[in-house]
Design goal:
By secondary structure, the protein is mostly helical. It has 4 domains: 166 residues, no CATH class; 172 residues, no CATH class; 211 residues, no CATH class; 47 residues, no CATH class. The chain is built from 32 helices and 2 strands. It has a two-stranded antiparallel sheet with strand order 1-2.
Length: 689
């Protein structure tokens, strides 16, 4: 077994130099010490590098050398985004004194300076090893082999190595926390000023751990075992739940350092919200008191800038609940989570369309629900470049009726799966996206914004449904991950919303060796947006609305959507921007195939469709965000106090019976109904006899 020599004489000499510096130069060494603490999670003087570990753990070492953790040492500093961040943050060399050392490298002291020694190495995850490596590999006095080690010595060895700073794989909380302290980027200015991504988006600890799995412990000491052992399902379940819990904890720890409204705090708020959704999903499948406690804790704290004390206190409580869960759970009672972990926990296919959508959840009856509703089945369109003819146009006017179809999709179903925000290679574009309104498109639905809620209820959806992936709203306003359609959607419109579902094209598209890139991606579902008709079709699917039920519910039609203007507002590519006239022509061709926007009458929460006034034409402009667009204007209220007695006296004002839907209607839903009820009353009172 290798023995790492302790550099006692060197340490003594270094201590002499530090003391001498303090005597002769006063506080001039303090900034260097501060930088050392700021640029490393551990004491860099105790790093021995990965090579000594590899002398015993040969198979693990070979796996490590092929991971992104290792190869980033030679490539990271040459990337365009690294150069941009380096310049903005004022760093000279990211492999020396910079924040980059903290997460992208294993750093140590070389020639008296703090610098990168390798990519993310063994000690980045298991702790700086100088104090524990010779304890960890000593199985007993006199060179005892591992198989001959006594239980007493093993227990003592493990306890001593942990006490000296080793993070053992069995210490699940410590290992996961070590991942999240980097994958959440707890540094506000690095994000807001430097333009660094706010962390690994949609980070899944269990999936990432499987990507770097190096579990050769059995093979190391048993010649008959050579495999990289997969963890048992029981352990995976515990790791999955713990990973989601730590995602919540570190999202809150990240938010605690925020001092300003910007990209950083928005990213932390998104991380916290997504973690809450995932934990709630887990809680719906298996009752875990620790998860229930975590959800209660996060519900009592405001995730906002300048709230450090409350956020750190909440994070500490979540940490204790996570440790308790890990200690008390062996995973056997978590079998109901296997579908979530595998990504196969999808709704049963719809009998009519076979699209994998669940039918609408049964809710309180509406005036329109007395007759059966149908679901429109959309067919994938032929590629715009190959289209040989126009589809039949719907009539310019749709006769008002009480029963337009309730849909679960507004766009054609793709033939490939969506994997969620994971375009890790395009870091600069990810940073841009966080400033774009597409990124925020799902937020008003979680906030139950009045306009969004009113449109949804008029359409026939409860407030609990508007954030679900198998309901109409999130088909355009969010990124629905395949296999999670029945869950809440926490991401707005992501890369896949425009470029196509990436499950099949991501790997060949991002491969290091040809064939790769754009040319290969098109064969696996990637949309070639350089083709202007394809680009126009991608935008029109959501920005040009022809669904009569949705329009009658007050949703903007997009009649005045200007593709050229919108395209210019989201430029995040290097190719020349097409001429406005070319984009306009492409868009007009696409919407001509879709047909004219139907004219319909507006719906009412109290009386259903068929009110006396037709819906006015849409006047929405591209300068308005989806959040700010309004439903068709309602009749102007007439104050009762302004009416003369002669105008209202003796009149018989009749209203439809008040329909509160059900006893379980939420406060928001009741208020919306009462609001429309009052508007209707004002309208009737204000009418001329």
């Amino acid at each position: 077994m290798p023995v790492v020599k302790q550099p006692f004489q060197f340490d003594l000499f270094r201590s002499f130099l530090v003391v001498a510096g303090l005597v002769f130069f006063g506080a001039t060494t303090a900034p260097a010490q501060e930088k050392t603490r700021e640029y490393a999670w551990y004491n860099p003087e105790k790093v021995v590098t990965s090579e000594p570990c590899g002398e015993c753990h040969k198979s693990e070492y070979e796996v490590w050398k092929k991971t992104k953790h290792a190869i980033g040492f030679k490539s990271l500093h040459r990337t365009e985004i690294s150069e941009m961040i380096t310049k903005r943050m004022g760093f000279d060399l990211i492999k020396r004194e910079s924040l980059c050392l903290k997460c992208h490298y294993l750093s140590g002291i070389k020639d008296g300076e703090l610098r990168a020694l390798s990519g993310v190495g063994c000690e980045s995850c298991h702790g700086a090893a100088r104090d524990w490596i010779n304890i960890h590999n000593n199985y007993g006095p006199g060179g005892v082999k591992r198989n001959d080690e006594t239980p007493e010595h093993k227990a003592q060895r493990i306890a001593e190595s942990k006490a000296k700073g080793m993070f053992r794989p069995s210490e699940l909380y410590a290992v996961i926390a070590n991942c999240y302290q980097c994958h959440t980027v707890p540094h506000e200015q690095l994000v807001n000023v430097g333009g660094h991504p706010s962390g690994t988006r949609n980070f899944d600890f269990l999936k990432r751990l499987e990507e770097i799995r190096h579990n050769f412990l059995q093979a190391q000491f048993d010649p008959s075992r050579t495999e990289n052992v997969e963890r048992p399902p029981e352990r995976k379940r515990v790791m999955y739940v713990a990973g989601q819990a730590l995602d919540l904890e570190f999202g809150m720890r990240g938010a605690a350092v925020a001092r300003e409204n910007g990209a950083y705090i928005r990213a932390m708020q998104t991380r916290v919200r997504s973690a809450v959704i995932k934990l709630r999903t887990i809680s719906n499948r298996v009752a875990l008191p620790e998860i229930k406690d975590m959800l209660a804790i996060v519900g009592q704290v405001n995730v906002s800038p300048n709230n450090q004390a409350a956020l750190l206190s909440a994070a500490a409580k979540i940490s204790e609940a996570t440790k308790k869960f890990i200690k008390t759970s062996d995973g056997r009672q978590l079998a109901s989570l296997d579908g979530l972990i595998a990504g196969t926990d999808a709704p049963a296919p719809d009998a009519e369309s076979g699209t994998g959508e669940t039918p609408p959840v049964a809710t309180a009856p509406s005036p329109e629900s007395k007759t059966p509703e149908t679901r429109e089945v959309t067919k994938p369109p032929a590629p715009a470049v190959e289209s040989s003819g126009e589809t039949a146009k719907p009539p310019d006017f749709v006769k008002p009726q009480s029963n337009y179809a309730i849909k679960t999709r507004i766009r054609p179903r793709a033939q490939h799966n969506t994997i969620g925000p994971s375009c890790d290679c395009h870091k600069e574009i990810n940073q841009w996206q966080e400033t774009d309104r597409h990124f925020r498109s799902a937020r008003p639905f979680f906030a139950k914004a009045q306009k969004n809620a009113q449109i949804a209820r008029l359409y026939g959806l409860s407030l609990a449904e508007i954030t679900k992936g198998n309901r109409l709203c999130m088909d355009c306003h969010g990124t629905v991950i395949s296999g999670e359609e029945a869950e809440d959607v926490f991401d707005g419109v992501s890369c896949e919303g425009c470029h196509g579902p990436a499950a099949d094209y991501k790997k060949p598209h991002s491969a290091d060796k040809p064939p790769h890139g754009y040319v290969v991606g098109k064969d696996y579902g990637m949309l070639l947006l350089e083709n202007l008709e394809v680009r126009a079709e991608a935008c029109a699917q959501c920005h040009y609305i022809t669904d009569p039920r949705l329009i009658s519910s007050g949703h903007p039609t997009g009649a005045n959507f200007d593709l050229a203007r919108a395209d210019n507002q989201i430029v995040h590519w290097k190719a020349p921007t097409p001429a406005p006239a070319e984009l306009k022509a492409a868009y007009e061709k696409v919407v001509a195939k879709r047909g004219a926007i139907p004219t319909v009458e507006p719906r009412s929460l109290t009386t259903g469709i068929g009110t006396s006034e037709p819906a006015p034409p849409s006047n929405t402009t591209t300068q308005e965000s989806d959040e700010a667009r309004t439903a068709p204007p309602k009749p102007r209220p007439v104050l009762l106090s302004n009416l003369s007695p002669a105008k209202s006296a003796g009149r018989d004002i009749r209203l439809e019976p008040l329909n509160l839907k059900s006893d379980s209607s939420s406060v928001e839903e009741i208020l919306l109904i009462l609001k429309e009820r009052l508007e209707l009353l004002y309208k009737k009172v204000g009418e001329q006899p």
